[in-house]
Design brief:
With about 300 residues, this protein is an alpha/beta fold. About 35% of the residues lie in helices and about 15% in strands. Its cofactor is pyridoxal 5'-phosphate.
Length: about 300
């Protein structure tokens, strides 16, 4: 009998769900974290990255050897670089030049080619350049912002996992919003199981800079976003997100990025409003992606 060993692609998903122990304080609520940094390329974006490539292949839109192009602020780029390496694609990633050194290094480690745009051009400029390159025939844009295969990965994976891991007791789901793929897919699944589940999205306050999440201008709002799937949107300040991020590492042993700190900060706010709730927040990635910024160097 030949043993069937998993491939690296088989290790995406089925991430742990763990309970916060100290940060919530005295409460009747259960606060849970979905640890997406446990995916092989280190973030929640592993799920849609593989989904977008695999499903495009099944539709005959791409085939191994083709060139793929994507605008990214970091995690999606790393995940796509990994997925392209698994599947045999050339990957061109376009990103703002103020992205962390760790993210750039991880992308090139997987063999991706990087094109940098200025901080002023930002993600909007990166998205515009990707579209121009596709129009010039230089590759195929997967377009995480408009690609239904992005939320589908969470509808078929992340959502069912959370429902199963909480045994259907979840009352609140909290997620940062970037492309909005995670919150769209998970909301759709959870509300099909129980329409009463409250879905809470996180966006940065005006002027805040929280990696991975955006307050999109209307003309750049992701096309996959459906406002009716989000019950409440929380504006998060940078200082609060960073403070909770550091507290997660020092008081809970959970090492994550700023957007995850913001999601937990929002969950802690909500916990003060309700009783006997079961809340789940997405921990998008790991904190080692941010060490070069000095963000963890602040005093206790």
């Amino acid at each position: 009998m030949t043993l069937q060993y998993p491939t690296i692609a088989d290790c995406i998903g089925n991430t742990p769900l763990v309970r916060l122990q100290r940060l919530p304080g005295a409460t009747s609520n259960t606060l849970l974290l979905k640890l997406e940094g446990n995916n092989p390329a280190g973030s929640v974006k592993d799920r849609p990255a593989l989904s977008m490539i695999t499903r495009a292949e099944l539709r005959g839109q791409i085939q191994p050897g083709d060139t793929l192009i994507e605008a990214t602020s970091g995690n999606t780029g790393i995940a796509l670089a990994m997925a392209a390496a698994i599947k045999g694609y050339r990957m061109i990633l376009i990103m703002p030049d103020n992205s962390t050194a760790e993210r750039k290094a991880a992308m090139t480690a997987y063999g991706a080619e990087l094109i940098l745009v200025s901080r002023e051009e930002g993600m909007e400029g990166a998205r515009d350049l990707a579209e121009r390159m596709q129009a010039e025939g230089r590759g195929k844009v997967l377009d995480q912002f408009a690609n239904g295969d992005n939320p589908e990965a969470h509808y078929t994976g992340t959502g069912p996992e959370i429902w199963r891991q909480t045994q259907g007791t979840i009352t609140h789901f909290v997620s940062s919003m970037g492309t909005t793929g995670t919150i769209m897919g998970v909301s759709r699944y959870l509300k099909e199981q129980n329409p009463g589940v409250q879905v809470v999205g996180l966006q940065p306050m005006e002027g805040a800079s929280i990696p991975g999440i955006r307050r999109w201008p209307h003309e750049y709002l992701p096309r996959i976003f459906q406002s009716e799937r989000v019950d409440r949107i929380v504006d998060m300040g940078q200082e609060e997100a960073e403070d909770v991020m550091r507290r997660l590492a020092r008081e809970e042993g959970v090492f994550c990025g700023v957007s995850s700190g913001g999601a937990v900060a929002a969950m802690l706010r909500l916990s003060r409003e309700v009783e006997n709730a079961v809340m789940v927040a997405i921990i998008c990635d790991r904190g080692d992606r941010y060490l070069s910024t000095g963000i963890y160097d602040s005093p206790n």
